[in-house]
Amino acid sequence: MSISSAISSALLGLGFNALGAQIASGNIANAQTDGYGRRELVPMSQATRHGGILRDVDPVILADRRAVDAEIGYSESLDAAITRLATLRSEGQEDRLITALGAFQNALTIAAANPSADSRLVAIGSAAESLVGEINAQASALADLRQEAESRIARDVHTLNSALAKIADLNTRVSRAQPGSEHLATLLDLRQKEVDAISALVPVKLAERDRGVIALYTSARAVLLDGRPAEIGFTETPTIAPHMSLAGGLLSGLTLNGRNISTGPGGPLSGGALAASFALRDTHLPAHQARLDALASELASRFGPGGPDATFAPGDPGLFTDLGGPASPAPQVGLSGRLRLNPLVSATSTEPWRWRAGLMATGPGEVGDASLINALAARLDARSVPADPALGAVSKDIASLGLQLSSAIDGERVGLSDKLASVRGRHAVLREMELRRGVDSDQQLQTLLTIEKSYAANAKVLQTVDDMLLRILAI
């Protein structure tokens, strides 16, 4: 080997070693960075289409993990909302609505034992107000959760459009990048991170195009990106009232490139966190709202005209009113938020005797007469088929109907939690497989030691050549 060949080989070796050290140290530094693909330095003769620096990821594991990301996004969104609703209903181990119903019934029982005691009659009014307040509070919680789902849809649509635009830009930059360069590997990292962000919102599938460019499709084969990014449209409603729905045209759905698309199961963008927000806004929360409205309607009808209080005339507001007016016997959307106790028997009323004599009575009547109070208590215990089909077609008392509401939420929460636990288990397995293919810090340190020895060897060659040249010059 000539001196010039030795110098050239040693310099190439030093450059190769320096790049290898840079890649290994970068792998160690980014071992926990989302979207980072482990780099490997390979001789150009063995390089893939990416050239001398190979970004090593497993596309099959990555695709499987992204599919589960969408399932987690869907399940977590539903579970978080229903768990929060269950928490708002409960105080410790007690359901506040059941507790309020029991307190109202207990106040009636205590007052019936001594109907002449105004303090006991006032206590009925206080318990009834607490019951109404609890129903109103739960209606308000449902409204808040629907509004939050609406806002979350708007944010997710913005995130989705933004990520698609970034991926389109990265596609262009990837197609222009030099194969095998660190710059290309960095662009691929950035693009993977954006695709991962989308996969939590909408399940996506990836298709390879020329020069490293990718196209994105949903599981339902809707095109999100193929050259140009799709445009997803949504119009946020500032305030959602209980009667507002997508079917009624008062809430916005989604558009894909200006065309209306389904937001329900099986829709083009179904399966991720975005679909979960629509499911909450349009299905799950309205169903709980309907049951709560039905309970409010049942209270109003049982204690209104035709009930135990004979002083009511048809058309009079009953014991429980719709914002002070008579509550319709037909199902009324949003009644639980409008339910009010008749002010004639409120806790602040100066005529508590109306609990004993009747709401529309002209006088206090016999102070020892507990017949109406007993009849009111019996009305709570009476079993009848609810007028609103949202509560089913089985005869039940008021307490059982209240328990039915609580059981519906708890049952849904348990089912969602079990499903989420299963999905998280599958995600953990796939994530472990992905990490195994990722950066092994111990292995990278060993690589650095090998590079150090190789670097020293090449440096020794240059030192030897330098010594030889000095001796030649000294002759």
TrEMBL record:
All copies of the Flagellar hook-associated protein FlgK helical domain together span 84-303
Q: Where is the signal peptide?
A: 1-20
Record keywords, A-Z: Bacterial flagellum, Cell projection, Cilium, Flagellum, Secreted, Signal
Q: Name one Pfam family in it.
A: Flg_bbr_C
Asked if the keyword Iron belongs to this entry, the reply reads no
Query: What compartments host this protein?
Result: Bacterial flagellum; Secreted
**UniProt main location, coarse:** other
Q: Which domain of life is it from?
A: Bacteria
Keyword Lipid biosynthesis appears in the UniProt entry: no
Domain (Flagellar basal-body/hook protein C-terminal): residue spans on this chain: 438-473
* Annotated spans, Disordered: 306-334
The family annotation for this protein states: Belongs to the flagella basal body rod proteins family.
* This protein's name: Flagellar hook-associated protein 1
Traced from the root, the source organism's taxonomic lineage reads: Bacteria, Pseudomonadati, Pseudomonadota, Alphaproteobacteria, Rhodobacterales
